[in-house]
Automatic annotation (TrEMBL):
This is Beta 1,4 glucosyltransferase. InterPro entries: Glyco_trans_2-like, Nucleotide-diphossugar_trans, TPR-like_helical_dom_sf. Residues 5-109 form the Glycosyltransferase 2-like domain. It holds the Pfam family Glycos_transf_2. It comes from the Bacteria.
Length: 369
C-alpha cells in the first residue's frame, strides 16, 4: 500500500479549511499546510489536524508556494487540494481503494474536478487534473498565476472526483499580479497570455480581453484545449461588444482544433435560432447531443450543452417549425434533467394544450427557450 502526503497552500481559509481536511484525513498519512499570510484562525484550524504547518512569505507566485509545500512531503505520493475543495464520501472510498491497490510504478493519477452544479446536484462544469503524483519524481509547479503541475511518465485516469465548493475569493488578486508583471516588462508565456485574457474578461474588460485572446491564438503555441476555450471566450467578448460577425467567426474557428464540441454546436444552434433559420438550428443542436466531448478530455466541459440545453432548444425549434409532437418529446427529455426549470414547465403546459393532452389555462403562444 502506498502512503500519501496532502500538500496545501492557504490564506484566510477559516470558513472552509476544516471541511476540506475532514473530508480527506482518512486517506492521507501526512498533512502539509503552508500558510501565505493568514490574519484569521486558519493556522489554528490547521494545527487541529497536523503539526506540519509552515509559513511562506507571499511573493505573488503560486507555483513557488506550492513547490515549497511539496518540498516538505515525506510520503510515497503527494495529493494536492485547495481549501475550498472536498472529497465526497464516495470519492473518499475510491481514494482509499486506490491507495490499497495503486501500482507503485504509476507516476501520476488524474482525478475529475467538479466545479459547478445545478440545483439538483447535477455536475454542469468539470475538467481533469493531475492530483496524486509520485514524490520521488520531484514534479514541479510552473506559473506565478494559474499554475500547473508539470508531470511525465506513466499517468492513469481515475474516476475519483474532487468537488469544488465555491467559497468567495479575492476577485482582483490574479489580475493585479498579472498587471504588476506587465509593468515590470515581463514576457508572458502563451499560457500567461491566455489566463491574463481570462482575468480581463472576468472583469468585463472585453475589448482588451479580445486583444489578448487573439494574441494567444495568433502565436499558435497554446495547448489545444486552451485554444478551443479561447475561441468560445472570444465569441462571448464579441457578443458583449455587439459584434455578431466576429462572435460567429471565432465559434467557427474552434473547429480548426478538432471535432466540434457540444458547447460550440450549441453556439451555432443559437446563432441560427436567433436568425430564424430553425432547420439549421435543429441540425446544430442535434450535433450537440449526438457528439459529446471525449469522456477524459482535460478541457473545461459545460455538461449542460450535451444534456438538457440542446433538448430545450430543439423543443423551441420544432415548435416554430410546427412539429409539436417532436417538440414535446425534446421538452420531456430536457425535463429528465431539469424538472423544475421555468421554461421546461412552461413548454410542457403549452405543448400539452397544443396537442390536446391536458387543457391548460393561460398558456403562452409558443415554446420558451
Amino acid at each position: 500500500m502506498i502512503t500519501i502526503s496532502l500538500c496545501m497552500i492557504v490564506k484566510n481559509e477559516e470558513k472552509s479549511l476544516e471541511r476540506c481536511l475532514s473530508s480527506v484525513q482518512k486517506a492521507v498519512d501526512q498533512m502539509i499546510i503552508v500558510d501565505t499570510g493568514s490574519t484569521d484562525n486558519t493556522k489554528q484550524i490547521a494545527r487541529k489536524f497536523t503539526r506540519y504547518v509552515y509559513d511562506f512569505e507571499w511573493i505573488d507566485d503560486f507555483a513557488a508556494a506550492r513547490n515549497f509545500a511539496f518540498s516538505h512531503a515525506e510520503m510515497d505520493y503527494i495529493l494536492w487540494l485547495d481549501a475550498d475543495d472536498i472529497l465526497k464520501e464516495e470519492d473518499l472510498e475510491k481514494l482509499l481503494e486506490l491507495k490499497q491497490n495503486l501500482d507503485p510504478g504509476v507516476d501520476s493519477v488524474t482525478m475529475k474536478y467538479h466545479l459547478a452544479f445545478d440545483e439538483h446536484g447535477n455536475v454542469i462544469s468539470s475538467l481533469r487534473r493531475n492530483r496524486l503524483v509520485k514524490r520521488s519524481n520531484d514534479f514541479r509547479w510552473i506559473g506565478a498565476v494559474h499554475e500547473y503541475l508539470e508531470v511525465a511518465g506513466r499517468i492513469i485516469d481515475s474516476d475519483i472526483a474532487v468537488t469544488h465548493c465555491g467559497d468567495e475569493r479575492d476577485s482582483d488578486r490574479n489580475l493585479n499580479i498579472y498587471m504588476k508583471r506587465l509593468a515590470k516588462g515581463e514576457v508572458f508565456t502563451p499560457r500567461d497570455t491566455y489566463y491574463f485574457a481570462n482575468e480581463l474578461k472576468d472583469h468585463r474588460f472585453f475589448e482588451l480581453a479580445a486583444v489578448y485572446y487573439r494574441k494567444f491564438l495568433d502565436e499558435g503555441k497554446g495547448w489545444v484545449e486552451d485554444n478551443i476555450a479561447a475561441c468560445g471566450k472570444l465569441a462571448d467578448c464579441y457578443l458583449e461588444l455587439g459584434d455578431n460577425a466576429n462572435a460567429l467567426a471565432f465559434t467557427l474557428k474552434s473547429f480548426e482544433y478538432g471535432a466540434p464540441r457540444p458547447e460550440f454546436c450549441c453556439r451555432m444552434g443559437y446563432h441560427f435560432l436567433q436568425a430564424g433559420d430553425y432547420a439549421a438550428a435543429v441540425y446544430w443542436y442535434r450535433q450537440a447531443l449526438e457528439n459529446p466531448a471525449p469522456a477524459n478530455t482535460w478541457g473545461m466541459q459545460n455538461l449542460s450543452c450535451s444534456t438538457w440545453l440542446p433538448h430545450l432548444q430543439l423543443c423551441v425549434c420544432y415548435d416554430r417549425l410546427g412539429m409539436h409532437q417532436i417538440a414535446y418529446h425534446h421538452n420531456e427529455a430536457a425535463r429528465q434533467y431539469q424538472p423544475d426549470h421555468p421554461s421546461v414547465l412552461q413548454n410542457k403546459a403549452y405543448l400539452e394544450q397544443k396537442l390536446g393532452i391536458i387543457p391548460v389555462e393561460n398558456s403562452e403562444e409558443t415554446a420558451d427557450s
